[in-house]
């Protein structure tokens, strides 16, 4: 059986669906795109 800690460690790195840039895990996990794409949408 896999422990919860082991489960999270095996998760693939978060990727921006817009540009494919790998992102660091953030507290605001509801944001799907990276900072660059998010600021692009603001304009
Ligand atoms: Zn992006």
Kindly describe this structure.
The protein is mainly alpha-helical. It is 33% helix and 0% strand. It has two helices and no strands. The chain has helices at residues 4-9, 35-42. The structure holds zinc ion (ZN). Residues 16, 18-19, 21, 33-34, 36-37 line the site of zinc ion.
Question: What is the topological layout?
Answer:
Blueprint: H1 4-9, H2 35-42
Bound molecules: zinc ion.
InterPro entries: YhfH-like
Protein name: YhfH family protein
Quick summary of this structure?
This protein has helices at 4-9, 35-42.
Query: What is the helix/strand order?
Result: HH
Shape: elongated
Total beta strands:
0
Structural class: mainly alpha
Count of discrete alpha- or pi-helical segments spanning 4 or more residues: 2
Number of domains: 1
Helix content: 25-40%
Q: Kindly, what is the distance between the CA atoms of the first and last residues, rounded to a whole number of angstroms?
A: 48 Å
What is the subunit arrangement here? single chain
Low-confidence stretches: none
Task: Please report which band the strand proportion falls in: under 5%, 5-15%, 15-25%, 25-35%, 35-45% or over 45%.
Answer: under 5%
Bound molecules: zinc ion
Average pLDDT metric: 77
Largest sheet: none
């Amino acid at each position: 059986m896999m422990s919860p800690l082991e489960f999270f460690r095996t998760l693939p790195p978060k990727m921006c669906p817009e540009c494919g840039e790998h992102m660091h895990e953030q507290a605001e996990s509801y944001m799907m795109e990276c900072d660059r794409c998010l600021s692009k949408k603001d304009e």
